[in-house]
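re: that chain from earlier
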Amino acid sequence: MPGRLLLVEDEDELAEFIAQGLREEGFDVQRVKDGLLAQRVALASPWDLIILDWWLPGQDGLALLQNLRATDRTTPVLFLTARDAVEERVRGLRAGADDYLCKPFAFDELLARVEGIVRRKSLAPRTEWRFEDMVYDVASNVVWRADCPLNLTSREQALLLFMLQHAGEALSRTVLYEQVWHEQYYEESNTLEVHVMELRRKLEAHGPRVIHTVRGHGYRLGDRTPSG
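^ sequence. v structure.
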């Protein structure tokens, strides 16, 4: 069950305590202390949960959450803050937080809440895949890049969706043929290359290259596997 967590907390000692405890439980934790940077990091790659403080330099947690929810409706957010008034908890939840825990707190309770949110997320059907400025809305079967809808063929959509599901991984031609075409790969075939070329053309009309060639192997969405 452990997954990727983004911890947005500006107090160094507290952040280290939380991050170390969660890492010992198997979670991959990346910590950011600035609200503006946290927004960019949150939208750059998928997260299983964002743990968010309210008081932050650059941009407070409530504004960050509101901006995040304007484009990302699915990533769970847990507010972890000293702001414990009922009206503030209500504001946080209404802004889009999935849970709210007040400081000071017991680590065991934080861990239980994190585990519960990540477990529920893993059981829920995925309706949206995101990578940097790309969004694949599974429900409507529409792909967006830089807020522009892309006119992709069904095969291009299937190819991009598989890459989104494995962002940062080097995918061999054999795997792509088997998983997207459901066929055996033959070296003399250039079907994959043609589809990648066309998909790149449509994506790069709205931004820099994101599908990279892995020489002698296949392709990768993104420069490398996102790290925590």
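The mean pLDDT is 89.
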